[in-house]
Amino acid sequence: MTQTFLNRRSLLAVASLALPSVALARQPQAGPFRFASRKGQEADAERGFFEVPEDRRDPRSRRIRLGYVRFRSTAAKPGSPIVYLAGGPGGSGVDAATGPRFSIFMALREVADVIAFDQRGVGLSAHIPERPASTAPWPALTHQGLTRWVRDETQKAWVDWTAAGVAMAGYNTEQSADDIDDLRRHLGADKVSLWGLSYGSHLGLAVLKRHADVIDRVALASLEGLDQTVKRPAHIDAFMRRVDGVLGQDSAARAAIPDLPALMRRVHARYEAKPVTLKIDGKDLTLGGFGIQMLASGMVANPPSLSRLPGLYLALDAGRTEVLAPLLAGVGGLFTIGGMPEAMDLASGVSPGRLALIRAEAKTAVFGDAFNYPMPHLLGAIPRVDLGEDFRASFKIDTPALLVAGSLDGRTPLEEQAEVIAQFRNKAQVMVENAGHNVFEAHPGVQDLLVRFFRGETVGDTTLKLPPPTFPLA
Fold first, then answer.
1. pLDDT over 90 percentage in the chain
2. Which helix (H) or strand (E) holds 346?
């Protein structure tokens, strides 16, 4: 088990800091270059930049430079440029193009230019100074310890960044949506199409709400609605019951674990009552039930890590806490405030009615309120940044849409996605059975559907199938 199983938003905050602070150090130059994937595949590309106000609501705001990588179309008559919107918040579009989606970026060139865009605050568009690494002891991975730490550190960082001239209130999804329209103008395009996943779909919805007239088509996956920054614990519980059903198809696994959610609750209660202290990377780390809930919430996104969850809980139920050491390797990176991810989540916020429901459901839910850490734990830590109910309100969408989901997506469960799907009136849906959150690359058939959709062909509702995960218990 690796650090990649940690809570998604916290990990992406770390990932955004791990990228070069190009806006603060040596900037790459605009122009053509040879793009390389992590596997060594190469393609001709162009790096480009354009400027926007850091906060359009403040006439005194400085201007910042946003960057992207363009893969030129191979079509004789290219369609509207396709802009990739990374998830997170805090993911890099440019970095995504180096990974498993590289082949999709390349395939979509048959239709149009493909733009790997780095959203404000990330990668080529990073303008928030890195925080110096803390030498203080790590906070306990308990509800109280982590909540106090993230609120205190975010408030201190916000003060420092503001003093350094950063318009932190400008790091929100509405400003990012307006960045997409400015990118369109910069590209000289009448319209652009959007391709995004997870928080990228959240941003895509904001673009559709604010700039629908300049959006040609959208392909969105693992949908996150504008009032879904914090997922409902009841929906996560429903997902875990589905997982328990898949587990039950394996007779040996079912014999060892008659009821997976019950096992998880038992483990959480045990370590919440009596936290353990582990030696990780030479430092002491105290971990309670909340910490286990948070770590496990990062494992359920995709089947490869989800499949290891039952074995982890069997070991913890037996008191074998040594299984946590590899999971927590590099955990020091968790205790860093990135700026962009926290600011985006705080601004998107959660409606009062939904928050009341979440807090009520969390009292008995398998993951409690740990699933979306650091939200809702950060709510109210920074005043006057919430975008409000008009931002979060649902709306009807007529833009042609291809909506893709994995049946075993544990980050944005199907119950959450169904609420977003209902907003689209001109849509085709793709369900990939037994795929998880990273569904675009999970099945080769998805790439073909994306190409056909962006080309303007009729794509009907489609079901693609993958084998169910197996659950090694050793």
1. 89
2. helix 340-348
**Per-residue pLDDT tens digits for 220-275:** 999 999 999 999 999 999 999 999 999 999 999 999 999 999 999 999 999 999 99
Give yes or no for a contact between 66 and 84, defined as CB atoms under 8 angstroms apart. Answer: no
For the purposes of burial, counting CB atoms within 10 Å of the CB of 163, is it exposed (0-12), middle (13-18) or buried (19 or more)? exposed
DSSP 467: P
pLDDT at 26: 60
In whole angstroms, give the CA distance from residue 69 to residue 444: 24
Count of other CB atoms within 10 angstroms of residue 387? 17
Q: Cα separation of 356 and 309, whole Å?
A: 29
Position 160 pLDDT exceeds 80: yes
Q: What is the 3-state secondary structure (H, E, C) of 219-272?
A: EEECCCCCCCCCCCHHHHHHHHHHHHHHHCCCHHHHHHCCCHHHHHHHHHHHHH
Rounded mean pLDDT, 423-443? 98
In whole angstroms, give the CA distance from residue 374 to residue 10: 7
Please, is 315 exposed, middle or buried when counting C-beta atoms within 10 Å of its C-beta (0-12, 13-18, 19+)?
A: middle
How far apart (Å, rounded) are the C-alpha atoms in residues 43 and 72? 10
The residue among 228, 241, 254, 275 whose CA lies nearest residue 365 is 241
Q: Could you tell me which of 226, 233, 195 has the C-alpha nearest to residue 413?
A: 233
Contact 53, 170 (CB under 8 A): yes
Specify the pTM. Answer: 0.95
